[in-house]
């Protein structure tokens, strides 16, 4: 699959432990509590299914009851490609009772590097046919509903109706927006992941979670007016093995939600950098949610971050300010502001001192990203280190539109 995230999660933490900068160590934020199971269990498993899934029965918290919940569950998977492939394999092997697989594409030879659901013999055949074959070979009691149809605004709710949970492995943000809108209307959770090149993100959205749990939607991570269409994997590539890691995480989140197991990623985004071998999380809250504060004493308000126009930024650079670009490599390949220092946000948060190597003095810093969200996070970190930091208002996207 394709599509790296065009901007980093809203309210990203300034550390590597997923704790918001305004939260005390150990403080909770949205999503870090177990949720009740999504489905009621079937009455009993067949002897064959009980034997096939025996290792699940040994898992504390899942056990035989959790396995019966999996058997009762209906999961809709959007896409049978790079992300959908490991999701379909993992969920069918796990014993999910019904999988609706939606994909209107056929297998191409170039898919085989990362879409492990398919075989050389499948080239030219419908991708959903591979899902039927593979699931039957792993879990004879799993029913696969193959839907060879492109998901649109007109059919999305119809195709997803009846599913307990939706897993989005689609390959464009246009489709992801349609899936998100449909799941919000239906009130079902959405397991979501994106990847490109060597980078990926995984999270859970839910517009109608259990009482007391804040809703988190796709628009909280990517405001509709700020999302572009990143270059395809045909242009910049994708590490095939990373699809397995991301798809595996998405399948795990699905199983956790079905069985009421552990702490789902509702309110958290897992960020993966395969090249550095790092996997960290950042908190994600609704756009209108109040910031998390430490208890019993509220943390000090974050410093004000000045916002500069493009002209003001260039004037500041001329006067000696350092420009820090915190976008990802796939974004900066298309160009950077001349003279700027490029340090992806994740690397910067891991070690803010990386910038020191590129500054000749203690002058101000102007931080740049695509839309301004990541830049603000980095600027707040710089402010805490006593550095005069500002951001390019609206990011490069607004500058380019202007």
TrEMBL record:
Cited PROSITE patterns: RHODANESE_3 (PS50206)
Pfam family, one: Rhodanese
Domain Rhodanese: 317-401
SMART domains xref list: RHOD (SM00450)
InterPro entries documented for this protein: Rhodanese-like_dom, Rhodanese-like_dom_sf, ThiF/MoeB/HesA, ThiF_NAD_FAD-bd, Ubiquitin-activating_enz
GO cellular component, one term: cytosol
Membrane-spanning residues: none
Single GO MF descriptor: sulfotransferase activity
Keywords of this entry: Nucleotidyltransferase, Transferase
Protein name as annotated: Adenylyltransferase/sulfurtransferase
């Amino acid at each position: 699959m394709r599509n790296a995230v065009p901007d980093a999660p809203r309210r990203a933490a300034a550390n590597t432990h997923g704790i918001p900068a305004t939260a005390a160590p150990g403080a909770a934020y949205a999503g870090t509590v177990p949720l009740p199971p999504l489905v009621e269990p079937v009455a009993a498993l067949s002897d064959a299914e009980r034997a096939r899934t025996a290792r699940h029965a040994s898992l504390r918290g899942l056990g035989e009851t959790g396995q019966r919940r999996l058997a009762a569950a209906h999961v809709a998977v959007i896409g049978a490609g790079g992300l959908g492939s490991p999701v379909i394999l993992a969920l069918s092997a796990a014993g999910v009772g019904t999988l609706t697989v939606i994909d209107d594409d056929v297998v191409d030879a170039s898919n085989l590097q990362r879409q492990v659901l398919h075989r050389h013999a499948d080239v030219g055949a419908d991708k959903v046919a591979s899902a039927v074959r593979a699931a039957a070979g792993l879990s004879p009691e799993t029913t696969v509903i193959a839907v060879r149809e492109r998901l649109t605004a007109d059919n999305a709710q119809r195709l997803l109706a009846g599913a307990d949970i939706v897993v989005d492995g689609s390959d464009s943000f246009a489709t992801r927006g349609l899936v998100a809108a449909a799941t919000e209307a239906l009130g079902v959770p959405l397991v979501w992941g994106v990847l490109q090149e060597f980078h990926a993100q995984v999270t859970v959205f839910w517009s109608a979670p259990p009482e007391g749990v804040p809703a988190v939607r796709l628009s909280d991570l990517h405001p509709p007016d700020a999302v572009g269409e990143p270059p395809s994997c045909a242009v910049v590539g994708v590490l095939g093995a990373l699809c397995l890691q991301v798809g595996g995480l998405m399948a795990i989140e699905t199983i956790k939600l079905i069985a009421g197991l552990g702490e789902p990623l509702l309110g958290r985004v897992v960020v993966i950098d395969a090249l550095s071998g790092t996997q960290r999380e950042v908190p994600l809250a609704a756009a209108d949610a109040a910031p998390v504060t430490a208890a019993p004493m509220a943390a000090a308000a974050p410093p004000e971050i000045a916002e500069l126009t493009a002209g003001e930024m260039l004037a500041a650079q001329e006067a000696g300010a350092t420009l820090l670009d915190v976008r990802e490599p796939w974004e900066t390949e298309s160009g950077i502001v001349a003279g700027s220092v490029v340090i992806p946000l994740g690397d910067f948060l891991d070690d803010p001192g990386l910038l020191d190597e590129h500054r000749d003095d203690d002058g101000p810093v102007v931080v740049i990203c695509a839309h301004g969200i990541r830049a603000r996070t980095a600027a707040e970190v710089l402010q805490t280190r006593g550095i005069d930091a500002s951001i390019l208002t609206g990011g490069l996207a607004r500058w380019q539109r202007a």
